[in-house]
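Record minuted for everyone:
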Amino acid sequence: MKVGIYTLGCKVNTYESEYVTKLLEDANYEICSFDDVCDIYIINTCTVTNSSDSKSRKIIRQARRRNKDACVIAMGCFIQKEKEIMPEVDIAIGNKDKSKIIDLIEEYFSNNNKINVVSKDLNTFEDMYLDKYLSRTRAFVKIQDGCENFCSYCIIPFVRGKCRSKDFDTAIKEITELVHNGYKEIVLTGIHTGNYGVDIDKSFADLLKELVKIKGLERLRISSIEATELNEDVLDVIRSSKVIVDHFHIPIQAASDHVLKLMNRKYDLKYFINKIDEIRSIRPDVSITTDIITGHPGETDEDFNSSIDVLKRINFSKLHVFPYSMRYGTRAAGMEQVKDSIKDERTHRLLKLSKELEIDYMHKFINKELDVLVERSKNGISTGHTSNYLQVKINEEIPSGEIVPILIEKEEYPFLIGKVKKN
């Protein structure tokens, strides 16, 4: 049978979809484009914002329209949150039991009855293991699930459950096998990645110390980490190993102490800025990107305008900007909301600032040599990313998966342009 898979949301979802794909391949299902007429459609959903919900609904309905007789499977955060399952869905799976998808498909086709296995029991880490990716030059590995921070704006702790970690030895074995299978860059992912180990008497630093020893691993990337989790043990590994890349995504979410308190974040600006300064003392050219929410309930014009100054002072290399999206069931939903027109205006200003910061950071590397992991190569042009996650375009075809030294010549946003450094 033909299967089409569509993934929304975060890198954790990407990993989980890849795992489901492997299960299906091993069971002799034919993996096709989601745009094809398939026998089975799988939508791995997201609910982090209202637009994520809308997109999840839209893709589910598209699948049903494409083939009214298909088995439509929806799984993940949007499904975990919803009290009623959409009528277009034949099999509903929340954030547990994704590893049982083959049995669920077989059960559905044997009796043709709808199946709902959305479980409220999200207390154990669901074992998943990958030794390859279908079409990637870097491999994501999910090492952690769940979050217990309960930021006032965020629905994710309610749909992902308590913090839980992949077995320590299993994580090391999985990453070792991926490296031996040719992946030079590994990206550690989780819902609260830096909280790895809290439930298994290990720490994130313990895991990093072992991973950087893996022979053949050239780059270890952390998808996202909170400032509060960059403790001395983690910083010591960053200090001692160049395997960990020159890029850290550290969400600030707000650049105002007043708004940070409203958000129930676990730090103030002084703490955050000191932590950034500490990282830059170890890695002077490091790229530090961030997430920021604009228009959170209670954010005043004064809060926002002072945030602009703080963001410039921190000098991030890119801002991922999100207008606040009300999530029912969260504390912020009961606060006085900021008008959409104000959120839109503030979002526009932050996106403009982000581009300025990004270009300024890119210019630092013109006439310098950077190693690039080639991800695509076609029609005489190769593209890839540096350790500090800058996109580079090279006017030469280079095999995907290779890491090559590139002399950066100029910036053509969103790319740096370079050529292969000849010996």
